[in-house]
Design brief:
Layout lengths: L1 E2 L5 H8 L3 H12 L16 H7 L8 H4 L2 E2 L6
Parallel strand pairs: 1-2
Helix pairs in contact: 1-2
């Protein structure tokens, strides 16, 4: 599985079957308002369905995509 809070947009795009431009909303959200990773304003996702919903993906109906992601995994 791929950690959705740590992976870059290209990997998220490939795993979620969306464009890299669409996937960048995930990385931008995680980085917070300053746009820099690993700072106090970061907003990491607490669950996969919330992240996928930003991509227009329903985790319930697309479980095949949802199972490709995790939170807090070492795979980035």
């Amino acid at each position: 599985t791929l950690d959705i809070n740590e992976a870059d947009a290209a990997l998220i795009a490939a795993a979620a079957e969306v464009t890299e431009s669409q996937a960048s909303i995930i990385t931008e959200t995680v980085r917070g308002t300053d746009g820099i990773r690993n700072t106090d304003d970061d907003v990491p996702f607490q669950d996969i369905p919330s992240a996928l919903s930003l991509l227009g993906i329903d985790a319930e109906t697309r479980q095949d995509i949802a199972q490709r992601f995790t939170i807090g995994d070492t795979t980035t």
